[in-house]
Specification:
Rossmann fold, 4-stranded parallel sheet, binds phosphoric acid mono(formamide)ester, alpha/beta, globular, 2 domains
Length: 322
């Protein structure tokens, strides 16, 4: 990553989007410039509070649980010299409990804060409501829809681990139906060259058909794998995900999920250069016995999220003092 550490031109936004709701508008050029900014921020003194966002306030509204996304965004804002207000468990602890519409929430919070990071329980609820926000809205996960900043940090991780994304063979594995991180990641991968994707999932947890068709139309090369033993020896990356049991209504949907676990046996099938990514949290699909293997990149991935989210906030909120 050397050679990337120059101060970015804050006057020129990385991605010319008002809100960050989806990875769909992102190109590889946008991603590469954001990564460049993350690398620059990363090498600044770790314990120093930067003055990139003086006087700026970030609001974090989480209607669903989170550890990584909420805390890394909040830490990112604070490290950049900004401040944070927020509602955790917002379904219970905000006026959503009284039935307030999301459009009104954005209208109000957008007066108090300079950007809003929101995780919402309803798929695609943010797109319409964000029109009412006077400040940028960042999607931190919307139901079974998308999780775009996770995908950006996933690609950042691929760049750090492999030097580039083009040409990688990526196996996405687990719950591809409800796993929103996969939805955003595949859309982002479609903007890179020579990517090959193998989908490996329980029979009822494949990609939603409209998304599959959209990715196909975008030129992403995808195939469906049949077993870990036949797929893992040929991949560069395994992107493992947990089954989203909280979203499954019919338990039959998760039938066969236990076959999609990674442990010491599965590790023997992976090439020496390969990497295992996982958005976390994990439950039982990723054995802790794998953690010390150098191919296990998921804790490095979570750390990358801090710098990538610093870069997002720096891009959206840094710059003029107005
Ligand atoms: N990867 C991710 O979104 O983690 P959290 O649910 O802890 O934010």
């Amino acid at each position: 990553m050397s050679g990337l550490w120059s101060e970015p031109q804050t006057a020129e936004p990385v991605a010319n989007v008002r809100h960050l709701l989806s990875t769909t508008p992102w190109t590889r050029q946008h991603v590469e410039r954001l990564v460049e900014r993350a690398e620059w921020l990363r090498q600044l003194p770790r314990r120093q509070r930067l003055q990139r966002l003086p006087g700026r306030v970030l609001a974090t509204l989480f209607y669903e649980p989170s550890t990584r996304t909420r805390l890394s965004f909040e830490a990112a804002a604070i490290k950049l010299g900004g401040q944070v207000v927020g509602a955790e468990n917002a379904l219970e602890n905000s006026s959503a409990k009284k039935g307030e519409a999301l459009a009104d929430v954005f209208r109000i919070v957008g007066v108090y804060a300079d950007a809003i990071v929101i995780r919402h329980n309803e798929t695609h609820a943010l797109v319409e409501a964000a029109r009412f926000s006077p400040v940028p809205v960042i999607n931190a996960g919307d139901g079974t829809g998308e999780h775009p900043t996770q995908a950006l940090l996933d690609v950042y991780t691929l760049i750090r681990e492999f030097g580039q994304v083009d040409g990688l063979h990526v196996c996405v594995m687990g719950d591809l139906k409800y796993g929103r991180t996969v939805h955003s990641l595949l859309q982002l991968l479609a903007s890179f060259r020579g990517i090959r994707v193998t989908l490996l999932h329980p029979p009822s947890l494949g990609l939603p058909r409209p998304l599959y068709l959209q990715l196909q139309a975008a030129g992403l090369r995808m195939e469906t794998g049949h077993s870990l033993a036949s797929v893992l020896p040929h991949v560069d990356v395994v992107y493992q995900t947990r089954v989203q049991r909280e979203r499954i209504v019919d338990p039959a949907e998760a039938a066969g999920a236990t076959a999609y676990r990674i442990g010491p046996q599965e590790l023997t099938w992976l090439p020496a250069h390969a990497r295992i990514l996982h958005p976390l949290p994990r439950v039982d699909e990723l054995d802790p016995a794998v953690d010390e293997d150098p191919r296990a990149a998921y804790f490095r991935q979570a750390e990358n999220g801090l710098y990538l989210r610093m870069a997002i906030l720096d891009d959206l909120l840094g710059g003029d003092e107005g």
